[in-house]
Sequence to fold (468 residues):
Amino acid sequence: MTVPVLRQGWWGPSLTRRILLALMVAMALVWLVLLAQAAWAHYTAMDTNPGVRRLALALAQPLSSMDDPVEARALVRGMAQTLNALRTDLALLGGDAVLLQLQDAHGRLVHSSAVDIPLVAVAGPSGHAQLVIAGRPHWAAWESPGAWRVLVAEPRVSDARLLGFIGEDLAMSVLLAFPLVGLPLWLAVRTGLRPLQRLGAQIAERSAQDLRPLQNLPPERELRGLAQAFDQLLARLRAHLAREKALVHDAAHELRTPMAVIAAQAHVLLQAPEGPVRVQAAGALVHALQRAAHLSEQLLTLAALEQAPSLRATPLDLVALLQDCVVQRSGWADGLGVQLSLEGPDSWVLPLDRQLLWSALGNVLDNALRHGCEPGPGAGREVLVRSTQEGREVVVWIADDGPGIGADEQARVFERFWRSPHARSSGSGLGLTIAQQALGHLGGSITLGQGLHGRGVGFTLRWPMAFG
Fold:
């Protein structure tokens, strides 16, 4: 298997680089927001109270006391020269001249700061608006003080030029703020990652067999949560390894007996002449092989269930599944003289995982036939399988009328390889453990209670109707 190698250095995956890039994006967004705000404020001011209007009002005050055209013309000319001289030094305005026109009370042109621009006609004694003068849009305002009307018109700056000027001015501020914000952030990230690096080094120093909890957990809340989650993973691994070791140990112990029987009977079979001794040895050998095969199959099933198999829920008839389970064991039950019966609805289609349910139901039913039925007449001659619904749960009850299980032994029936010392038949001791595991994967449970007619054992299997 090829292990992917992560690139190192600046271009490799890096939290520091990601945070700094996020900061750059954030600063760019701040710049865009400030640019939009400044542009909106500019256009709002020009629509409601433009600078040309304030200039027109400023000119109107001295003009209101003047009657001499020469004095009025000189005032307007001087103001135009002063304004346009100041505008030549402003990069945004690009040297565009302000137009000032002086008109008399009859609307005749008395003076224009641009001789090539004719009289600009406006309506009303005062106001402001956007006008197209000499083919170019202007912000214009006019006032009518005394015997005069003064008009001030400023060429409108293009949107691109205005946004470029504002954006360039704001960019300098943003660039100046970037290191002031970025440096503390970079230091905070570098400092904040050190506990994570120490935690990584502590983990890297461990051997594959060292599953002890971590030492010296970081004090930071976020990293402590990560370390605790890692400790929980180690705890699950320790428990899993302990279960595997126990399973291997118990399996070796349980297989030792049938293997010894097989070896002994095989030796007898080889040495015995034809006759009853050889037949008896052959029968014992077959029985030991069957027991070893059954135990191996149960061990494989249990190992598969402990790996948390994925559910495969498909619509199936639970009643048909129970019928198949009962029919498959009817010959065994007849040989024991046991009445094996099934109660429940005629059909019940549910989302089911057939393999898990078959394993759970089959092992519980086998347990009832193997341990709940006495070989002689009397009690222990009946096994019942009943399916019902309780709320949103499916319930299957498998009960017998046998001798039952003592109260001191009931807590151990689901332990692996446990068999009651009073059991009359052999078994692997894994059937009920497998059933419990299978029901657990379905989100259900299996409980032990009283059996038929006030005696025996009854196992209640329940799981959600919509477990898939």
